[in-house]
Design brief:
Elements (H helix, E strand, L loop, with lengths): L1 H18 L13 H12 L6 H15 L5 H15 L1 H6 L2 H25 L11 H23 L4
Helix pairs in contact: 1-2, 2-4, 2-7, 3-4, 4-6, 6-7
Protein name: Rod shape-determining protein MreD
Pfam families: MreD (PF04093)
Main location: membrane
Amino acid sequence: MRAFFVFMVTLIAALMLEAMPLPESLIWYRPEWVLLVILYWVIALPFRVGVGLAWFLGLLVDLLQGGIIGQHSLTYVIIAYTCGVFYKRLRMYHRWQQGLFVCLLVSVNQLVDFWIDHYFGDAKPTLMIFMPAIVTGLLWPWSFIVLRSIRRIYAIR
């Protein structure tokens, strides 16, 4: 029960950070907090956290941001599945190499989100769509350390 509570607190904190308002000039630099937490838990506990939870959290992010329902669910499921397939290999990488992989996965997220938004006429083509992927990749080592210490303190296995 304690493990579920700690797990839910980290996800709620990520959802709160995702909903935090930013000035218009910093919108492109917002990291993908929910995806960052999902990726950590999929790598740390691949048999407990997976595609189903990623789909549900994607729906929550869609409701939170007021976007097209299912848009984030689709990308989160793709990324959680990819991360779940490669979790053993990812654990062997250094943190900066994991950060590059996270940057690549979040770039896929950004690209699919852009395609969906562009299809419905809401997006304009720009390379700034990849800036959240870069920021998320740079934040990966520190978020990994924080989440791992939380997992170890509460002995979540």
